[in-house]
Amino acid sequence: MMIPFKPITIEDKAVITACTYQSHMQNCDFSFTNMCSWRFLYDSEFAVVNQMLLIRFQFEDKGKRHKVYMLPVGNGDFRQAIGLLEEDARADGRPLRMLGVTPDGKEELEKYFPSEFKYIPEQDYFDYIYLRSDLQQLTGKKYQAKRNHINKFKNRYRYVYLPITPELVPLCLELECKWYQANHTAEDADALNHENRSMIFALNHFKELDLTGGAICVDNEIIAFSYGSPINHRTFGVHVEKANIRYDGIFSVINREFASRIPEQFLYVNREEDLGIPGLRQSKLSYHPTILLEKHTAIKRR
After folding, report:
1. Structure confidence at residue 302 (pLDDT)
2. Of 34, 115, 145, 264, which has the maximum CB count within 10 A?
3. pLDDT along the chain (302 residues), means of 10
4. Kindly report the CA angle at 47 between 101 and 121, in degrees rounded to 5?
């Protein structure tokens, strides 16, 4: 059977989230916002076959682009869905390769296909998942430094938290432009250009993507913003957090302010990967994740 893959567009949100929102998958790869806003880079496609969501995209490996997949999710036949993906991969002349496979996904694969996959951990892509209440309240000794940063900021600046609206989007993009000019280097220019393109798409389609976001304003200037969207019924994903680092403590402030406005139905907050960047890894660990969600590449043995 040929899988009827089609490019992911905003118009497909309801069809895709009908499968992902009710699943147990907490990894940021299943965020519709991420799928849609990064499609330009990965040529992401999807199909729903017998109530199972199948996702295929292009991934660069050793200078060549290859078809890779995500773990099927939905209420259909998991074994059949894996078989369809395997057929599609073999038609491309390669074994089935799935990215972002979590321990739950690995367990499910082993249940139906014992010892038929090999697993390669991808630490740079592990997700940092927190209790929403921890990020909101910052209680206890382990968060003392965060509270100190926030109090120092409050003593120095009078600020206002503003929900992101269409009128605020140009100001957020202006801050992103300043951040890019201040932080990019020749080595990471491509990665930051891709991030910038993804962010512009998301901010310009804020309502259609059903995003939630907020910004910190000091002296009529936006100095930080953040936005995100649900991954599943209990996990909210924070996709972007940008700030003017000249304001000491601003990241602690925007993080707490935004977490305080995430709907209470979401028990967990996924702040995504650290991409192997030492400073980013240290920052995300400093918030003491409840779950450091392991992700593997799963490759079907021939």
Report:
1. 73
2. 34
3. 94 97 96 96 96 94 86 96 96 94 97 97 97 97 96 96 94 89 77 91 94 96 96 97 94 97 96 94 97 98 82
4. 10
Distances (CA, A) of 213 to 72, 131, 228, 283, 299: 29, 18, 6, 21, 37
Other Cβ atoms closer than 10 A to 158: 8
Assigned token pair, 191: 């990665």
What's the angle, vertex CA 167, arms to CA 165 and CA 169, rounded to 5?
Answer: 75
Whether residue 271 contacts residue 226, with contact meaning beta carbons closer than 8 Å, is answered with: no
pTM: 0.95
Tell me what pLDDT residue 1 has.
75
Q: State the pLDDT at residue 22.
A: 94
**What's the pLDDT at 185?**
76
Residue with tokens 């992911």: 8
274: tokens are: 């650290």
Specify the long-range contacts of residues 224-228, CB closer than 8 Å, at least 24 apart. 224/175, 224/250, 224/251, 224/253, 224/254, 225/164, 225/168, 225/172, 225/175, 225/254, 226/254, 226/255, 226/258, 227/164, 227/202, 227/203, 228/33, 228/258, 228/262
| End-to-end Cα, the chain, rounded Å | 20
Our CA angle for 35, 39, 42, nearest 5°, is 105
Question: What pLDDT is recorded for position 191?
Answer: 85
